[in-house]
Design brief:
With 267 residues, this protein is an alpha/beta fold. It has eleven helices and ten strands. The chain binds ligand I24 and D-glutamic acid.
Length: 267
């Protein structure tokens, strides 16, 4: 039987990762789990994020996946190392791939990172960047107002632009030429973010880079789904919350028909 790519996220934000996987690896089946009932993870203590993430992973492992993507930056910041060490299948996080691309792109050696409180507090991006190049200067900023902004749907209102400007104010005193969008939701407001930091700053989407990394890993290990001219895929979507709400957001975002199944995780 064809094995799928497992993707976990705190909710619907990881659909930005799923969309990139569908685009870059159109032959692959996706098995997505979004913990919408307990979203957001950003403000939660890391021990809680760890427990919740491991519950989702346990569920997906029973779904016969061949690789796992930790699509949520907050979760990847906490559990990636532990899960990579524990599982026999390839595990891809959303942090290292974005860090690598930022290092490749920066000319000044000054990189900024934005994310949730949990992601920034963990220092995971800073560690990943400094591990690759200790001379890189890193500026990190938690932006707790941006996930609620995206989820409010004000993606094209002047009010949304103001919230982004306000959130990024502390960055504008800093010097950097590359900005890592270290959160699933930020690609949806990339236009606001670009406007706030100016046209000379290069934005890096962690979702896009994670999908690229997955593609490289599967290719290297000769684990890519094979087939001819006709592509046949079956995707599965699980949510801990309301399945109709989940499905409507997923359908709009991915542009495919989505049947979501609700699953209760242990409290
Ligand atoms: N976008 C996100 N979360 C929401 C939302 C949204 N509502 C409207 N849009 N709600 O995240 C979160 C809370 N829900 C989740 C489902 O269960 C119940 C609780 C960003 C989505 C990233 C793919 C705006 C919106 C949309 C469709 C696509 C994109 C988008 F409706 F931003
Ligand atoms: N998925 C989370 C992340 O990428 C954002 C939403 C949340 O706080 O749960 O960090």
């Amino acid at each position: 039987m064809k094995q799928g790519i497992g993707i976990i996220d705190s909710g619907v934000g990881g659909l930005t990762v799923a969309k990139e996987v569908l685009r870059q690896l159109p032959r692959e089946d996706i098995v997505y789990f979004g913990d919408t009932a307990r979203c957001p993870y950003g403000p939660r203590p890391s021990e809680e994020v760890r427990t919740f993430s491991l519950q989702m992973i346990d569920f997906l492992l029973k779904e016969n996946i061949k690789a796992l993507v930790i699509g949520c930056n907050t979760a990847a910041a906490v559990v990636l190392a532990e899960v990579t060490a524990k599982l026999d299948i390839p595990v891809v996080g959303v942090i290292e791939p974005g860090a690598r691309t930022a290092i490749k792109e920066t000319k000044s050696g000054q990189i900024a990172v934005i994310g949730t409180q949990g992601t920034i507090r963990s220092g995971a991006y800073e560690k990943a960047l400094k591990k690759l190049n200790p001379k890189i200067e890193v500026t990190s900023l938690a932006c707790p107002s941006l996930v609620p902004l995206v989820e409010s749907g004000q993606l094209h209102d002047p009010e949304g632009m103001e919230i982004v400007r306000e959130a990024l104010l502390p960055l504008l005193k800093q010097r950097f030429d590359t900005l890592i969008l270290g959160c699933t939701h930020y690609p949806l407001i990339a236009h606001f973010i670009q406007e706030a930091v100016g046209p000379d700053v290069r934005l890096i989407s962690s979702a896009e880079e994670a999908a690229r990394e997955l593609s490289a890993v599967l290719s290297y290990r000769q684990m890519l789904a094979n087939g001819g001219d006709v592509i046949h895929t079956t995707h599965h979507f699980y949510t801990s919350g309301d399945r109709a709400l989940f499905a409507s957001i997923a359908e709009e975002w991915l542009g495919i028909k989505v049947g979501a199944v609700q699953v209760a995780l242990n409290e």
